[in-house]
Amino acid sequence: MTKEIHTGGCQCGAVRFRVEGELIDASVCHCRMCQKAFGSFYAPLVSVRGANLVWTRGEPKKFQSSNAATRGFCADCGTPLTYEAPDGVALAIGSFDHPETIAPKIQWGTEAKLPYVDWVAGLPQHETLEDPNAAPFLKTLVSYQHPDHDTEIWPPK
After folding, report:
1. 3-state SS string over 67-121?
2. 61, 80, 110, 141 — which has fewest CB within 10 A?
3. Domains located in the chain, CATH noted
4. Cβ atoms 149, 7 nearer than 8 A
5. Handedness of CA 19, 78, 62, 69 (dihedral sign)
6. What's the pLDDT tens digit per position in 24-57?
7. Which residues pair with 53 in a beta bridge?
8. pTM score of the predicted model
């Protein structure tokens, strides 16, 4: 039987990881600490408890966000990467190279859920280049983010 292999990292490429084994308990957490840690409506996380997590480039800087949890992030670009608690480590779903394969199955911390989160999906939807004011600028945009795969040399010369 072949083990699942997942890779990911921060947006600048200074921190990269590899997970061998099953990802479990994919969730979103709406608690206020997760909102602040991610700078977002909620934190999408997946547990790597029982899998083998290896930092293949760099390691996250840590912030003790409570008496029970530590959060890891890239010290260079600020990307949120980990939530570490007594029951194990969870990784930010958005930091995986293929986040589309990791669907949350439960929500936590709903007492702090922002009142508009449930109807965001119903807002009008447009593709990025449909904005006539931004399209000319966006067509010339060059991303300096790390690609969604491992590279031998980063940043490129």
Report:
1. CCCEEEECCCCCCEEEEEECCEEEEEHHHECCHHHCCCCEEECHHHCCCCHHHHH
2. 141
3. 5-114+126-139 (2.170.150.70)
4. yes
5. negative
6. 999 999 999 999 999 999 999 999 999 999 999 9
7. 19
8. 0.90
